[in-house]
Each structure stands twice: as C-alpha cells, then as structure tokens.
Write a structure and sequence with these properties.
Radius of gyration: 26 Å
Keywords: Cell membrane, Membrane, NAD, Quinone, Translocase, Transmembrane, Transmembrane helix, Transport
InterPro entries: NAD(P)H_OxRDtase_bac/plastid (IPR023043), NADH_UbQ/plastoQ_OxRdtase_su3 (IPR000440), NDAH_ubi_oxred_su3_sf (IPR038430)
Largest sheet: none
Helix content: 55-70%
Subunit structure: NDH-1 is composed of 14 different subunits. Subunits NuoA, H, J, K, L, M, N constitute the membrane sector of the complex.
EC number: 7.1.1.-
GO molecular function, one term: NADH dehydrogenase (quinone) (non-electrogenic) activity
Strand content: under 5%
Structural class: mainly alpha
Length: 124
Amino acid sequence: MELLNVYQNNYLIVFVFLCLGVLLPVVALYLGKLLRPHKPSEAKLTTYESGVEPFHDSRVQFNVRYYIFALMFVIFDVETVFLYPWAVAYDKLGVFALIEMLIFVFLLLLGLVYAWKKKVLRWI
C-alpha cells in the first residue's frame, strides 16, 4: 500500500507542474491583454521593415534543398543527444547496450549513405 502512495504522489507532482505550465502563460498573456493600451491606427497596422516602407511582396521562395539540409542536420544532431547518455553510462550497461548502440549508429549511417546516393547533401 505504501508503494501505491509513492506512485500517486509522483503523479500528483507531475500533474501540478503540468497545470502550472499551462496556467501561468495563459494568465500572463491575459493580464498583458488587459493592461496594455489599445489604440489602433493605420500607421500602426502597416508592415515595418527596418524603417523602410515595403515596396514588394515579402514572401520569398526558398529552395527545398535548404529545408532538407536542415532536416538532415537535426536528425544527426538528435543522434548525438542519444549517444551522450549512453557513453556516460557505458560501464553500467554492458555488451548488450554496446550492440544496441552499434545497430543504432549503423541505421543512421545507412540513412546517411542513402541521402548521399540521392544527392540530398549536394549544396549546389
């Protein structure tokens, strides 16, 4: 019975932090809306670009390669996030964890080779 109370207490702490994480930003935004001055004018509603009046459409089409390159960077950046805790706790994990991590790195390298063959990493 005591173990059940410990688990309920842990869930209660998580629930309180979840409520605070949602409630505090909502209250802060609502108070900001109530307290700020609201005097709209035509000058305030215009687009401001470093003090220069806009002279054309601000939408710019980017090459999709930039997006794919950034996505590849994020994927391999996340890889390092998974590798770091494993490296810190390697002594405690043993050979099984080493094999798991080698499989993980192999799959990522396989993805890198696939992206290289598809010429996703070609900048120009």
